[in-house]
């Protein structure tokens, strides 16, 4: 149940609702402290599986008797754990990487408060050559890789894949989460790159003023 292989069929997966958006190819560190998520991570690591990350439009992910499911986005990203460690504060720290996108169907809570969903997984992204007119994205991403925070993430980026360059760049940049969520919903690499390029031009214009 926790190890979907992709495709157009519906499958049930556990969800990790977050106030931030995880993108395919994106890396994200998390601190785990609630028991239901500690149990989920232990099961995920034991089974070498994953879970869904879905953006919360508003509110908090609070579980309890009589508490409804959080206000979630209509789609999210299937995540796998790529690193873990015991943090200095005693909490479990993990790093997750985004994989396939999925559309959310029915959502419910388990007795322990864990949010589950029936989802339809998209096919894994097919690597797409990075066109010459998109190379400005590569320059920005390589510049970000020089930042100490990004270097600590030990990213291994395929600069020949436009999807990976665009999504990795979008994950790292401090855009509003609603913007990242909107771009996650795009299925055309040309549209995604055009929107990302427009956002970068807007930021450059603001910096120049």
From TrEMBL:
Signal peptide feature range: none
Cross-referenced PROSITE patterns: LON_N
Domain (Lon N-terminal): residue spans on this chain: 10-204
Domain of life: Bacteria
UniProt-recorded name of the protein: Peptidase S16, lon domain protein
Organism: Luminiphilus syltensis NOR5-1B
Taxonomy of the source species: Bacteria, Pseudomonadati, Pseudomonadota, Gammaproteobacteria, Cellvibrionales
């Amino acid at each position: 149940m926790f190890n979907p292989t992709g495709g157009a069929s519906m499958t049930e997966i556990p969800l990790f609702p977050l106030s931030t958006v995880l993108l395919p190819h994106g890396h994200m560190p998390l601190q785990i402290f609630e028991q239901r998520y500690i149990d989920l991570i232990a099961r995920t690591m034991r089974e070498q599986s994953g879970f869904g990350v879905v953006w919360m439009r508003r509110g908090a992910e609070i579980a309890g008797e009589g508490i409804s499911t959080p206000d979630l986005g209509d789609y999210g990203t299937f995540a796998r754990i790529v690193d873990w460690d015991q943090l200095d504060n005693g909490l479990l720290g993990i790093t997750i990487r985004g994989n396939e996108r999925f559309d959310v169907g029915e959502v419910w809570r388990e007795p322990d408060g864990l949010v589950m969903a029936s989802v339809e997984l998209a096919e894994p992204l097919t690597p797409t050559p990075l066109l010459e007119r998109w190379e400005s994205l590569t320059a920005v991403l390589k510049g970000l890789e020089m930042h100490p925070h990004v270097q600590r993430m030990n990213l291994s980026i395929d600069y020949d894949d436009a999807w990976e360059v665009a999504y990795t760049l979008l994950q790292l940049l401090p855009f509003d989460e609603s913007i990242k969520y909107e771009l996650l919903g795009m299925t055309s690499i040309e549209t995604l790159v055009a929107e990302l390029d427009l956002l970068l031009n807007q930021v450059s214009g603001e910096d120049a003023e």
